[in-house]
Design goal:
Blueprint lengths: L1 E6 L2 E8 L6 E5 L8 H9 L3 E5 L19 H14 L5 E6 L1 H12 L4 E7 L18 H8 L9 H15 L6 H14 L7 H10 L23 E6 L7 H10 L4 E5 L11 H11 L2
Parallel strand pairs: 3-4, 3-5, 5-6, 6-7, 7-8
Antiparallel strand pairs: 1-2, 2-4
Helix pairs in contact: 2-3, 5-6
């Protein structure tokens, strides 16, 4: 059941699955729905205590202006530690997807005693902005779509869902499941609590993580990756056009003794068809 918690001085919406006496896993995404209900339920059934939450300016967490956030990436890292505090967890296995992977990396670097193991899914070792010269950047055809998107009314559910289903098609692998993508997008839209003068900004932030483009991300951390002491699993889609595979390969190479799991035919996504591979890997990694 969802509940509002105080973490790092802000109000965040969080939800737990399973028995609190089982090994805890903190799942970090954009909204809590980055990690679908059924995936969380499957992990809980296999004796993991699963915690997920909405970042600031997403879902039902505290929200102000996602276009001009009054906080930094390091504040979001402190929020994650605060979520652990709110659930009475000295440490947890931590998994981050996409932009949530940045938070997870920095949590492992800046709060190492709080991270029992680290799992990084579909992410990269650098913040928004130009990619490092040795890392593959976003696919040009994908960025062309993002830079000149079709007309969309961000306050109209049908308009938003139609646009985002096509976005999902562009970031997925070759086996795109439109019905699954549509259901996930609709659920995120329906949980979004708009705030401020422009409710469209809230829907953009919830669906696309646009707050990160405006966020002060502070100092680089890629050069610090060798300092990570938590056993690390890097999971990456072979056909990811947003953070291409070389980004996951770099994480696995630069974090000591990291395991690298490539998902064939998968893009910047974690669809149901991958769970039979990802869930056993995550269970082994957190044992």
């Amino acid at each position: 059941m969802e509940k509002l918690i105080k973490a790092n001085g802000v109000e965040l919406c969080a939800e737990a699955f399973g028995d609190p006496s089982d090994p805890p896993i903190l799942l970090i995404g954009n909204t809590m729905l980055t990690w679908p209900d059924d995936l969380c339920g499957r992990l809980a059934a296999l004796r993991r205590f699963v915690v997920r939450y909405d970042l600031r300016d997403t879902g039902r967490s505290e929200s102000a202006d996602s276009g001009a956030p009054g906080y930094t990436l390091r504040d979001l890292v402190a929020d994650a530690a605060g979520v652990l505090d709110a659930f009475g967890l000295p440490a947890a296995h931590v998994a981050g997807f996409g932009t949530g992977g940045w938070i997870a990396q920095l949590l492992a670097l800046d709060h190492p005693k709080r991270v029992s193991t680290l799992t990084l899914v579909a992410t990269r070792p650098t913040a928004p902005g130009p990619a490092d010269a040795d890392l593959p950047d976003h696919a040009p055809e994908l960025m062309a779509r993002f830079m000149k998107p079709p007309q969309v009314d961000w306050t109209d559910r049908e308009s938003v869902v139609g646009f985002l289903v096509e976005n999902a098609r562009h970031v997925s692998g070759p086996s795109f499941d439109e019905a699954e993508a549509r259901a996930n997008i609709e659920r995120v839209y329906d949980r979004t609590v708009p705030s401020g003068a422009d409710p469209g900004k809230a829907h953009r932030a919830n669906q696309m993580g646009t707050v990160f483009a405006a966020l002060d991300c502070g100092d680089r951390w890629r050069e610090r990756l060798p300092e990570i002491t938590a056993p690390t699993l890097v999971v990456h889609g072979e056909d990811d056009p947003f953070f291409p595979l070389g980004n996951g390969r770099a994480l696995a190479a630069e974090i000591p003794s990291a395991e690298f799991l490539v998902l064939p035919g998968t893009g910047n996504e974690l669809p149901r068809r991958t769970w039979d591979t990802v869930v056993p890997a995550l269970l082994r990694h957190t044992s």
